[in-house]
Write the structure tokens for this entry.
Amino acid sequence: MASTIALNFSNNFFPIFAITILGATNYQVGLISSLPPLMALLMTIPAAILLNRAYAQKKLVAFSVLLARLMFILIITLVYLPTGPFRAWAFLVVIALMSMPNTVANIGWQTLISGLIPDSRRGAFFSDRNRLLTMVGLVSTLFIGIVMKNSSENVFAYQLLFGAAFFFGLVEVFLLMKHKEDETVKTDELKKKKMMDWSIFKNSRYVWFLVGALFFNFTWQMAWGIFNIYHVRVLGATIFWISMFSVGSMLMQIIGFPLWKKWAERKSNVLVFVWAALGMATTPFLTVLSTNLYYITFVQSTSGFFLAGVVLLLFNLLLEQSPETSRTYCITTYNVLLAIVAFIAPQIGIWMLESFGVEAAMYINSSLRLVSAALFFVVYLKYARDSKVLSI
């Protein structure tokens, strides 16, 4: 919950801060989405080595989170730099630096939580967890939207916002250290761990998941920069409206998490993910049909319902299709490849925006998202054939 508040107080408002306060260009706004995965790509292998050889992963995760949250202090001071394009570039440098410890923290958390939660409880746990975190995110985002309703160009308001994010980041570190982790790992077992286990690519179920997940993430993330620019430059959305977009989305996520969990238990994670991906495909197309901010809030709200399915099921699928004996390697490989995709995708999205215009870019993105849903349906058929069970 502390992590959710810290991120909601910061990441949600990075694009509008960059545009209204730092004067960022479209290309620089695109880099806000692209730089973190690039740094994640560079840091994933070192992170995996550190985590594989760590006696207590939670300590490494907590320290990494602390380093990342300290970057909020640097962001607060950026407004004192001389006015000009340098300020936006300095902001991007801080974003890149923040992404390095974040990579260690994210991979470490995925490995840590997969060991703490038994497989039999995973679906229920993550459904309840995601719903609770979304409630916290909703309240915190709504609070910011109301308090900063008329402060979109107020420098001090952003400094308070990022200062609060730093405070909750410290709370996050404190609570991370309260987790109980089994540290009774033998030294010789640690020494036997390899840098990489290439045998994971012999597991066809994992490879099929990898292909489907990476292509879906490509289609999903290529639109992030387009949405940010469309909301601020075309719609003229203020902090209040951006908060309302998030609040509407989170309300539907709260409703959606238990439903997606129930449907996944009745059918299968991969088949139900196809439904979620189909819903996600409608969002870019519907977004450009009107510039009415109330309508856009409605579209963002409905997309939150399908986003709940994506968030819940994609991570469950990663753990489900990763062999337990090589799960750390599977998660690491997924994160490395995902970082490559996440760096390239927003840049392609911005190129589409500049080349074809915002409407055409959104239509193309919707089409590609439909293709990604079809690809996951192929993955489902492959899984069903392998298990000799096909139930739709």
